[in-house]
Amino acid sequence: MTNILRDRLGTGNPLAYRRLENLIFPSMQHIRVLAYQGLKEIFEIKRFKIEKILGAGYYPLPNLLSRLDPRHAAFLTIKIKKA
């Protein structure tokens, strides 16, 4: 999930090679699979304020754990506000 934005490489991966540089070729974009850290960074880059993050599904464990640890939940819901 490192090449989701055309104006920033390495979104969601703090260890990505050439992080925060501009995309050189459109072919450098990959399938857009969004993860917790990547979603947070995209909204921050685009100047949204994250108000709340909720998780659902914590397979094979009980769903209660997704509320405690949304980072590893199967599904995410993010409440944002334009800054």
Structure description:
By secondary structure, the chain is of the alpha+beta class. Helix content is 18%, strand content 20%. It has helices spanning 36-45, 64-68; strands spanning 48-56, 75-82. Strands 1-2 form a two-stranded antiparallel sheet. It is flat.
The quaternary structure here is: single chain
Please report the distance between the alpha carbons of the first and last residues.
25 Å
Content-based structural category? alpha+beta
Mean pLDDT: 77
Strand content: 15-25%
Strand tally, please? 2
Choose one word for the global shape.
Answer: flat
Compute the number of helices: 2
N-to-C order of helices and strands: HEHE
What is the radius of gyration? 14 Å
Helical content class = 10-25%
Low-confidence region ranges: none
Query: What strand line-up does the widest sheet have?
Result: 1-2
Q: How would a textbook summarize the main sheet?
A: 2 strands, antiparallel
Key descriptive features of the protein:
83 residues, flat, alpha+beta, 20% strand
